[in-house]
Amino acid sequence: MEQTTKASQNFKIISSIIFLLFVLWGGWPLLQHRNYKMEIVCGPGVTEVKKLSDSFPPLKDTPADTYVFILQGKEPGGKALIMANTHANEPEGLLAVSVMLENAVVEKGTLYLIPNFNRSASRNTRPGEGYPLYFSVTTPWGKKIFRLGNRDASPLDQWPDPDVYIHYPEKQMLSYLDIRNTNRTWPGRRNGLPMEKVTFAAMELLRHNQVDLAIDLHGAETMFPVTNCIVAPEKSMRIATLASLTVKSMEGFENHLESSPEKFRGLSHREIGDYSATLPFLLEAPIPFLDQPTGPKTEKLLLDGKDDFLLSLARKNKLFVPYDEHGWPFDKRVGQHLSVSLEIIRQYSRKNPERGLVIKNVPRYREVVEKGVGTFFHNPAEAPVERIIKF
After folding, report:
1. Helices of type H across the chain
2. Is residue 93 a contact partner of residue 367, using CB atoms and an 8 Å limit?
3. Would the pLDDT of 157 be above 80?
4. How many other C-beta atoms lie within 10 A of the C-beta of residue 60?
5. Which residues partner with 69 through β-bridges?
6. Chain-centre distance of CA 143, in angstroms?
7. What share of the chain is helix, strand, coil (3-state, %, to 5)?
8. Which run of H or of E encompasses 389?
9. Residues 328-384: tens digit of each pLDDT
10. Using N-to-C axis directions, what is the helix angle for 330-351 and 92-103, rounded to 10°?
11. C-alpha dihedral (296, 300, 306, 310), degrees to nearest 10
């Protein structure tokens, strides 16, 4: 009997050790991903680097705080904010803003850039769907590596979720998960949960600095009708229309319009316009990686957008964008975001010359597609240490 009890205890100890080893084996890569630092080389146009907590101090020293880069021209003019990684599994916005940070020079007005709006989500992932933890872009000097995140903030940073998320201040009931989605928590809440504080801080930045335009960069499935488009409320629609028509006629790619719904609350393109004087826009680029009926969620699919299942569906007219054997490559998606963002700013500046912005040295769609997005990144090894930001 004593021998049987001892054998049972040994079995439990060995089983516990094996279980612990499996936990460590699976958890170590996730811990490395959470702590991996992406690098930005601040270009000649970056005049100041701040944090979102400078607009709302309670965010300071929290996992939700993030960098805000300021590019101020010598001539006064209007102000624009461009933000990416609201959803950190839609990385074309991150790359577009990063290209701006490393190259743009503002001659008139002020440009605010937030490359990693939901920082917590960028340090999260979806292991159940087999998401790669990283992706890399080929540059003239080697591979530039980025974290691939998730749609929602990490439960390590905000937990527990409520049974029902009640939007503030409209009191609309939303999915419990949306409380960690920073495109459902606008206009935010001063004393709310962390992601509500993130959007509240952004609203404070917009209001206190009297920002004229806010552009939120996203990606959407090819099977989702609101993709490859500009989403705008009524107050922004004229500028959005002019930008859409111009890129189609001058640059040769489609970017249709979608109206921001009045009854669906928490969206950046709705609440920014309703709770400030800023004109909001949300840009969606097609990202086949997010579609459900695809092959494995690999880095290759993320970058080239080629998938046999989607190609089959395209032949049956089941997709909402043109799709062929060339897929929807990363360069094309990043290029569209850059061109549409610049065109929105240009059209606004034409209509409001006293509040205009003049931005130079940012590549547009055709140049990005021809040269590749990696061409526009600078080698951190050759940059002054004080111009490198890790986030």
Report:
1. 2-35, 92-103, 119-122, 194-208, 237-246, 268-274, 299-304, 308-315, 330-351, 365-371
2. no
3. yes
4. 12
5. 49, 113
6. 21
7. 40, 20, 40
8. strand 388-390
9. 999 999 999 999 999 999 999 999 999 999 999 999 999 999 999 999 999 999 999
10. 60
11. 20
In 3D space, the residue among 320, 327, 334, 330 whose CA is nearest the CA of residue 294 turns out to be 327
How far lies 61's CA from each of 53, 104, 190, 338, 341, in Å? 8, 29, 16, 31, 31
Which secondary-structure segment (H or E) carries 48? strand 48-51
Alpha-carbon gap, residue 211 to 81, rounded angstroms: 7
Q: How confident is the model at residue 127 (pLDDT cuts 50, 70, 90)?
A: confident
Residue 17 has pLDDT above 60, yes or no: yes
Cα–Cα distance for residue pair 44/101, rounded to 1 Å: 9
The continuous run of DSSP H or E covering 75 comes out as strand 75-83
Task: Quote the pLDDT of residue 11.
Answer: 77
CA distance 343 to 232: 14
Side-chain-side CA neighbours of 16 within 13 Å: the count stands at: 6
Token couple for 296: 């494995």
Residue entry with tokens 């999260």 = 124
Return the bridge partners of 57, or none. Answer: none
Cβ count near 173 (within 10 Å): 11
- Cα–Cα dist 177/266, whole Å: 13
Which amino acid type is present at position 212?
A: D
Rounded Cα gap, residues 56 and 215, in angstroms: 20
| Cα 375 from Cα 364, distance rounded (Å) | 13
Q: What tokens were used for 147?
A: 């974290």
Exposed e or buried b per residue across 347-384, where buried means at least 16 C-beta atoms within 10 angstroms of its C-beta: bbbeebeebbbbbeebbbbebbbeebbbbbbbebeebe
Q: In the structure encoding, which two tokens stand for residue 9, read together?
A: 């205890």
